Amino acid sequence: MRIQSVTFTKISILLVLGLCLSSCTVLQWRSSDQEIKEKFEESYVNADISYFKVDSLNLKVRIQAVTEPDNSINLIFFHGSPSSLSAWDAYALDSTLREKANIYAIDRPGYGYSDFGNEMTSIQLQAQIMSALIKQKELKNVLTIGSSYGGPLAARIGYLNENVKAIVMISPAIDPENENDIWASRFTRWKLTRWLVPTSYRVAGDEKKVHAQELALIKDDWVKMTIPVYHLHDDKDDIVPYQNIEFTKKNFPNHKIVSFPERGHEIAWKNPDLIIPYLVELINSLLVKNTN
After folding, report:
1. Count of alpha carbons within 13 Å of 52, Cβ hemisphere only?
2. What pTM was estimated for this model as a whole?
3. Residues in domain AB hydrolase-1 (predicted)?
């Protein structure tokens, strides 16, 4: 009887923990439209929220835009896994960037409020959707910026869309032969534990499972790209191996490698002060090019 009681107690604790984790707002990595607007209003910045509809996929992609009528450069940010467009708040609120460019942040499919919980593991399909978004909004002089999983996506959009003039990949998982198998992601694959994992982490796990295969499908196209590609990476990244920079060196003809010491994988949102100067550098370069 005591054994049954202890077992029942453990199962009960596991059930409660699972329910708490799966419903925890913080672990879902997303903010509502209203929460975003209120946060930006506190800084006297107007954030416009819209949705790009893809009827054939029954999908709506959420877009946050901070724009100025006179800006001709457009920055589009793509988050990693798990995350949402809110990962880029520091960039959208940065006065230097706002003075020089329009700033767009996207909830990738399956995250935030873009069909939350329904994964889209194809990098090619995500890139096609984002390229169509750029076309629909008639955006020119585009710089795509992506962190972690968003890095290859940003690059693929640059391959597909001629209006993309430069790419910034931050801690990108770009090398199909150097994919780091994160032990914790296995919880999202096992039937016994999958239900315990918060929705955004399940989506991330599903992407992770086939990420190397997805990268392999598009790797031969990188050498055809001539636009600038910046690869920013920490030398002690414990999530995406630093060796990914070697792949960029070999496969992107017009690349620039920037290494940071001992900042970790999360430099995109923990250290925006390190990233923003390189965005400004590219913006200024593009502005000069457009005036010549």
Report:
1. 22
2. 0.88
3. 75-190
Which residues lie across from 105 on neighbouring strands? 64, 77
Distance, in Å, from the CA atom of 66 to the CA atom of 103, rounded to the nearest integer, reads 5
Sheet strand arrangement including 229-234: 48-54, 59-66, 102-106, 74-78, 142-147, 164-170, 229-234, 255-260
69-83 pLDDT tens trace = 999 999 999 999 999
Compute how many other C-beta atoms are within 10 angstroms of the C-beta atom of residue 26: 7
Structure tokens that stand for 246 in this block: 């070697």
CB atoms within 10 A of CB 191: 6
Listed by start position, the domains of the chain span 29-291
Quote the CATH superfamily of domain 29-291. Answer: Alpha/Beta hydrolase fold, catalytic domain (3.40.50.1820)
- Taking the CB of residue 290, how many other CB atoms lie within 10 A of it? 12
CB crowding 197-233: b at 16 or more within 10 Å, else e: bbbbbbbbbbbbbebbebbeebbeebeebebbbbbbb
- Two tokens at 211? 């990420």
Helix axes 199-218, 150-160, angle to 10 degrees: 50
